[in-house]
UniProtKB/TrEMBL annotation:
Localisation: Cytoplasm
A GO CC term attached to the entry: cytosol
Function: Exhibits a very high intrinsic GTPase hydrolysis rate. Involved in the addition of a carboxymethylaminomethyl (cmnm) group at the wobble position (U34) of certain tRNAs, forming tRNA-cmnm(5)s(2)U34.
Cofactor(s) this protein cannot do without: K(+)
Textual note on the cofactor: Binds 1 potassium ion per subunit.
Binding site for GTP: 227-232, 246-252, 271-274
Every TrmE-type G domain range: 217-372
The keyword Nucleotide-binding is assigned to this record: yes
Binding site for Mg(2+): S231, T252
Superkingdom of the source species: Bacteria
Organism (species): Methylococcus geothermalis
Protein name per the record: tRNA modification GTPase MnmE
Family matches, as Pfam families: MMR_HSR1 (PF01926), MnmE_helical (PF12631), TrmE_N (PF10396)
Keywords: Cytoplasm, GTP-binding, Hydrolase, Magnesium, Metal-binding, Nucleotide-binding, Potassium, tRNA processing
Amino acid sequence: MVAPERDAIAAIATPPGKGGVGIVRISGAELGPILSAMLHRPPRPRCAEFRRFLDADGGTIDSGIALYFPAPRSFTGENVLELHGHGGPVILDLLLRRALQLGCRLARPGEFSERAYLNGKLDLAQAEAIADLIDSSTTEAARAAQRSLQGEFSAHIHRLLERLIQLRTHVEAAIDFSDEDIDWLEDTAIGCGLAESLDDLQAIERKAHQGALLREGLTAVIAGRPNAGKSSLLNALSGRDSAIVTEIPGTTRDILRESLQVGGLPLHVIDTAGLRDSEDPIEREGIRRAHEALDNADCILLVIDARHPEASDELLTGLPEAIPIIRIFNKIDLTGDQASLVTSQDTTTVHLSAQTGEGIDLLRQELARRAGYERGTEGLFSARRRHLDAIQRAHAALVNARLYLGTKTAELMAEELHAAQKALGEITGEFTNEDLLSRIFASFCIGK
Ligand code: GDP
Ligand code: ZN
């Protein structure tokens, strides 16, 4: 594990802009000078105290609630001070500057969470769940992230790790007694242990896969002539209760992509109408990203006005050929067609009306089916590709370990068990490296 840094860090923890309350958060091993300079004296631990926040001359920058959490009973495990002032950018900036003046360093994105992890307050999967909770774009995703944050995912992993450690101890004992008559690897206890571990791992893998889907969702490209009903379709898909979320959290505003939720699953839609040339650097970056997302899109939604069903295939030029197409004949309320979903070898055709909503559920179900999403899976926790990858490596190692059952190669089996253990340990952060850590925490927001 990496040694924690000890210097004091500070950041504005509330989002930019104006609001009722704005919070500056400070964490470090030694906050004494800051407490006396900004507050005269430290507030009582874990008690909200109304205070003046002082500048260098003893003048008042702002007044508000000061909260002091002495180590180790704090989010980061260090001494933490929170100043809850008025939520204006200038005030917050002044408070932050004052903290920097007093020796704090500006926190890197996610550095508070990173310290919480390094100080053993959270494991890595829980720390990632914080970011996932903040970034979640559907209710289901938020619930799943909350479960991970509460440690459900980690608890599954820990139970499995314990079982693997027991198995390994058992197998390693066989190495030491390999001269004896008893063939240890025929031992049914080992066989059963392996089988149970594989079952557990599969159950976790299934949930993690659903969890990752909830987090990442499905990406669709939408194409169609002007007035075919693209915007109407997106509105209809997103449903009554879930407004269109036009911004992808954590990234700069990206006009070519829209995110909506379809049956609890985030659906990211790339609008090909936006994929024109542009001189504007920000727009160009948006277009570059849209093209990148395009290559990994799960499907193309080609919207066609059912009254003019002539080929719209020219709209598909320039789109990657490998992406499956769903042809959507819209406006059936005007043609009298029945709502339907027809899947043939290489195309899926849906007849619907974005206006009346007829047939929209067919399309929703089709999208969920393509994603492999099973709505209502109990006890989902949020997971990331990184976790899935680790689970799959652990799985492969256990399958290999099973091959050595009944052979006299206890060492090889022990090695596979160790590999599985290491892979799972990467999820919670028991086995990790600085590179991975900085990649994970760099995607957090500042002040988190
Ligand atoms: P876009 O240019 O492809 O985004 O198309 P819009 O969604 O803006 O729709 C163009 C026009 O078609 C609007 O006047 C919509 O109200 C209308 N429209 C869209 N879908 C339907 C539909 O299913 N039935 C009917 N009758 N009109 C529709
Ligand atoms: Zn439109």
